[in-house]
Design brief:
Elements: H1 6-25, H2 31-37, H3 42-45, H4 52-55, H5 63-84, H6 86-107, H7 116-131, H8 140-162, H9 168-182, E1 196-199, E2 204-207
Antiparallel strand pairs: 1-2
């Protein structure tokens, strides 16, 4: 039975709906409108509007910003949710996104928007989640995947430091939080490798006996 990624799909749908509203109201070109919709603002967050630490993840500052974050979330979120389960994916996405938003609010006045802090969190969590997984850590594709993750983390951080409008503080905050969360032991022992087949190319996971395995 093929595993799905319902949380990733739901997040992408909400992000798309919110961005459509931004387009209709031309909010992504107006910092004040973004703040009214929930963008990170140093003053407002520390006045008690902590709900912004979640809301800002669903807002984006333009077409390229939305497309790039949505594509990264689709690629990383689908694979992580398929391999490690919806509960663990949800915990990592929102926790790293909140930490990234808090880091941004502490060091920058705002407004700040976007899911990229949570995307960095997923990249960080992937590294140690795979390394600690009895099911995946010895499979040949994992070394290549980890190498690609490290490469893209380095590239995106370098780009962030070269472009002043990119909030690397949020990216690094999300990344560190993800690395730490990736170290959390898996609560449910995974099935032995002989019972599962991983199709990395299409992000599909199926159990050879036709029943869905337990999430890690």
């Amino acid at each position: 039975m093929r595993r799905k990624a319902p949380v990733t799909k739901a997040l992408l749908a909400i992000i798309a709906i919110v961005f459509a509203f931004e387009v209709l109201t031309n909010a992504f070109n107006d910092g004040d409108k973004l703040i009214s919709m929930g963008a990170i603002s140093h003053q407002l967050v520390f006045r008690g509007e902590v709900w912004r630490l979640i809301a800002y993840m669903f807002l984006h500052g333009g077409w390229l910003h939305w497309l790039s974050n949505s594509w990264a979330l689709y690629q990383l979120g689908t694979l992580y949710e398929v391999l490690f389960g919806s509960k663990r994916f949800t915990l990592i996405f929102f926790t790293t996104g909140i930490v990234a938003g808090l880091a941004s609010a502490i060091l920058h006045p705002g407004p700040a928007v976007g899911a990229s802090g949570a995307v960095f969190g997923l990249m960080g969590a992937f590294i140690f989640s795979i390394r600690r997984s009895p099911l995946y850590r010895h499979q040949p594709w994992t070394r290549s995947l980890i190498g690609q993750l490290v490469f893209w983390i380095a590239v995106n951080i370098a780009i962030g430091y070269s472009l002043p409008f990119i909030d690397n503080t949020a990216h690094l905050g999300g990344l560190v939080a993800g690395l730490i969360l990736g170290l959390i032991p898996h609560r449910v022992p995974p099935p032995p490798p002989r019972e599962s087949v991983i199709d990395v190319g299409t992000f599909n996971h199926r159990d050879t006996e036709g029943t869905e395995g337990q999430p890690l």
